[in-house]
Specification:
Elements lengths: L1 H21 L4 H4 L6 H6 L1 E10 L3 E6 L4 E5 L5 E2 L7 E6 L5 E6 L3
Parallel strand pairs: 4-6
Antiparallel strand pairs: 1-2, 1-5, 2-3, 5-6
Length: about 100
């Protein structure tokens, strides 16, 4: 009986430690941007400086001076970006960004 209790407590402690280790990444780290090879080949990408960030879009001012708004949703992989950051956004034909990756100068 005593051995079973010790085994059960040990199991509970180990499960809790495993859960804590799995939950240490925040949402932005779990969604960190790294475009797949197929995204790089098949999707258009927009490169420039972030103008504006909304709940459903990111506005990017391209190097030619044009601003382009790309749509984002829960499936978009996105680095933690702020207004003024240089980014590459991999965009589908419908205008949805699958990945927005911060570019370090």
């Amino acid at each position: 009986m005593r051995i079973q209790t010790i085994l059960m407590l040990t199991t509970v402690v180990l499960l809790n430690l495993t859960m804590v280790a799995a939950c240490t990444k925040n949402a932005s780290e779990r969604r960190a941007a790294s475009p797949t090879m197929s995204e790089r080949i098949s999707k258009e990408y927009v490169s420039g400086r972030v103008n504006d960030i909304g709940t459903k879009y990111v506005s990017i001012k391209e190097n030619n001076g044009e601003s382009r708004r790309v749509r984002v949703d829960d499936n978009t992989k996105m680095d933690l970006v702020a207004i003024g950051d240089n980014v590459n956004a991999y965009v589908s034909e419908e205008g949805y960004a699958s990945t927005i990756q911060r570019v370090v100068d």
